[in-house]
Write a structure and sequence with these properties.
The chain has a domain of 116 residues. The strands form 2 sheets. The protein has an 8-stranded antiparallel beta sheet with strand order 3-2-1-10-9-6-5-4. Strands 7-8 form a two-stranded antiparallel ribbon. With 209 residues, it is α+β, with helices and mostly antiparallel strands. Helix content is 32%, strand content 22%.
Length: 209
């Protein structure tokens, strides 16, 4: 009897120990599982590479869209156009061709006398200008023809042009040189009968502004 009781006691103790070990093991496993659930799993190397590649594609796509939606100014090369040459002032070539448009307007001399030109010549009733030709001192000479008087010489002098000196015999037998007394920095028209008058600035006509 005693042996049977001892055997039952030992069996009971063994079962209790085994159950205790099972409960302890279960608690340890539960704690480990709970701890692993509280932390995010670290991605593998392949997952990291895939994420980086996807991010690069997204950034590239956004950049392309932004670039395509931006309208850049278009620079058009301007083709140079030839501008017509413009001339101003007294044009000698036109005068010899009968075109007086470059001297159109009113001209006044030092004595208050006037000459009024239109595109075709004098328009003030003083007569007509004929036989207009160039000279060797870069002026143009014509002749004023009128009905009542004999007319006179018309000399058209552009800026810079002057009459050559005219030499006349003096009273004492000495030659007298007459110089152009006009303002060569302006355009002028001279009207006269005797070239000795070129020494008088008042005999020259200047354009009225």
């Amino acid at each position: 009897m005693k042996k049977r009781k001892m055997a039952r006691f030992l069996l009971t103790v063994g079962i209790v120990v085994i159950l205790g070990l099972l409960v302890l093991t279960s608690c340890i496993i539960g704690m480990a599982v709970g701890s692993s659930k509280g932390q995010a799993p670290s991605p593998s190397s392949s997952q990291q590479l895939t994420s980086a590649s996807s991010l690069t594609e997204v950034v590239t796509t956004q950049t392309q869209v932004a670039a395509s939606s931006t309208t850049l100014p278009v620079t058009v090369a301007e083709t140079p156009t030839e501008k017509p040459a413009t001339t101003s002032g007294m044009q000698l070539t036109q005068l010899t061709a009968g075109d007086f448009s470059s001297i159109e307007g009113v001209w006044v001399n030092g004595y208050g006398h006037t000459l009024t030109f239109g595109p075709s010549g004098l328009i003030d009733g003083r007569g007509t200008v004929q036989d207009v030709k160039g000279t060797s001192w870069e002026t143009v000479r014509g002749y004023l023809v009128t009905e009542n008087i004999g007319g006179g010489v018309l000399e058209f002098l552009p800026v810079g042009a002057v009459f050559p000196d005219h030499v006349y015999p003096g009273e004492n037998g000495e030659d007298v040189s007459i110089k152009d007394a006009s303002d060569s920095q302006q355009e002028r028209i001279w009207l006269g009968h005797d070239f000795a008058q070129i020494g008088d600035n008042g005999s020259f006509f200047y354009r009225r502004n």
